[in-house]
């Protein structure tokens, strides 16, 4: 499905589509809801909004989850060994968890485990990529992954859960843009294998 010379470009396009999809989902759902506040409300509150924002959030999370899973699959297909694939397979898993967040709204039995698993999978992926990149001398991407992984931990203990979640999602979208850039430019470990 993802092979040949266009695989890196496909991964970059999927990652970019993921960023656009979830950003639009979040913004449109907030506008429709009208009462949601950044850092005060959990993002998942949009999925149980009394307005039509819950449809936007639910379906948007499902679509974004599909794009995240496909991005992970496309990036993993560019790697040879299981160890090299692991961070991107975790992104696939995170995509499935995002789909479940959209399917099972806040307050249902599967929502919290899916949301928590999503954040943990992305964090572990950033840590794995940071270690891999820094060991390989890929300082730019290694540094970005390191900063994002550390910032996630610092924010988790320093701010409210609602603010952490919102900032965590923004960091995830920034990370996805780094993945797209790495795939598109052929950066070591992100673009097409030599």
What does this structure look like?
With 194 residues, this protein is mainly alpha-helical. It has one domain. Helices cover 75% and strands 0% of the residues. The protein contains six helices and no strands. The protein has helices at residues 7-33, 53-77, 82-103, 111-136, 139-158, 161-185. Helix 2 (53-77) runs antiparallel to helix 3. The longest helix has 27 residues, at 7-33. The two termini are 19 Å apart. The model has no long low-confidence stretch (mean pLDDT 93).
Summarize the structure.
Helices cover 75% and strands 0% of the residues. With 194 residues, it is an all-alpha fold.
Any descriptors?
194 residues, 0% strand, globular, 6 helices, mainly alpha
List the helices and strands and how they pair.
Blueprint: H1 7-33, H2 53-77, H3 82-103, H4 111-136, H5 139-158, H6 161-185
Helix pairs in contact: 1-2, 1-6, 2-3, 3-4, 4-5, 5-6
Number of helices: 6
Low-confidence stretches: none
Distance, first to last CA: 19 Å
How does the helix and strand content classify structurally? mainly alpha
Main sheet properties:
none
Beta fraction: under 5%
| Overall pLDDT score | 93
Give the H and E element order. Answer: HHHHHH
Overall outline? globular
Helical percentage = over 70%
- Count of spatially separate domains: 1
- The radius of gyration over CA amounts to 16 Å
The count of strands amounts to 0
């Amino acid at each position: 499905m993802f092979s040949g010379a266009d695989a890196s470009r496909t991964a970059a396009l999927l990652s970019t589509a993921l960023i656009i999809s979830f950003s639009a989902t979040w913004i449109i759902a907030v506008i429709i809801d009208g009462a949601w506040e950044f850092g005060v409300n959990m993002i998942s509150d949009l999925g149980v909004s009394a307005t039509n924002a819950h449809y936007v959030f639910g379906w948007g999370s499902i679509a974004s989850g599909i794009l995240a899973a496909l991005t992970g699959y496309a990036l993993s297909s560019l790697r040879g060994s299981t160890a090299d694939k692991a961070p991107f397979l975790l992104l696939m898993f995170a995509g499935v968890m995002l789909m479940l967040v959209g399917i099972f709204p806040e307050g249902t039995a599967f929502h919290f485990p899916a949301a928590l698993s999503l954040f943990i999978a992305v964090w572990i992926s950033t840590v794995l990529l940071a270690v891999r990149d820094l060991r390989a001398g890929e300082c730019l991407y290694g540094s970005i992954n390191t900063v994002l992984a550390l910032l996630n931990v610092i924010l988790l203990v320093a701010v409210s859960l609602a603010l952490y979640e919102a900032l965590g999602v923004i960091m995830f979208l920034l990370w996805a843009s780094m993945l797209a850039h790495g795939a598109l430019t052929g950066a070591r470990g992100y673009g097409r294998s030599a």
